[in-house]
Amino acid sequence: MHEPYMFEEMFAVMAQLGPVMMFWFMVLPALVAVLLLAILYRLLRTREGATPAHDDEARMIQEMYRAMGRMEERVEALETLLLDPDGTAGRARHDAGRDAPRGQGRE
User: Fold this and answer.
1) Disulfide engineering: 89 pairs with which of 66, 73, 84, 102, CB 3.0-4.6 Å?
2) Does residue 105 lie in a domain region?
3) Residue 14: which domain range?
4) For residue range 14-30, what is the model confidence (pLDDT) as tens digits?
């Protein structure tokens, strides 16, 4: 019966095969493992990096919503200034400008 290969015997066989075989059986798998870990790390990091973008978008939408509320208040204030309850104040000011003689007021 043959004993199972021990590490010393495996290294002796690898030494006989030469550096090319050592590259294919030791260095190349290690490089592939490192590359896979680097890709996995980058993928996980970009997922975590996507969260602040969503936070920025949510903050921007909230600011727009607040600005729209302020704009609505301003429009209501303008409507109140231009129109009284029966709607004559705004028209009276507008018509007063038309009734003035064209030659007067410009000197």
Assistant:
1) 84
2) no
3) 7-98
4) 777 777 776 777 788 88
**Prediction pTM value:** 0.33
Query: How many domains is the chain partitioned into structurally?
Result: 1
Task: Give pLDDT tens digits for 60-94.
Answer: 999 999 999 999 999 998 888 888 666 565 555 55
DSSP the chain: -PPPPPHHHHHHHHHHH-HHHHIIIIIHHHHHHHHHHHHHHHHHHHHHHHHHHHHHHHHHHHHHHHHHHHHHHHHHHHHHHH--TTS-HHHHHHHHHHHS-SSTT--
Name residues whose C-beta falls within 8 Å of residue 14's C-beta, 6 or more positions apart in sequence. Answer: 21, 22, 25, 26
Residue 25: CB partners within 8 Å, gap ≥ 6? 14
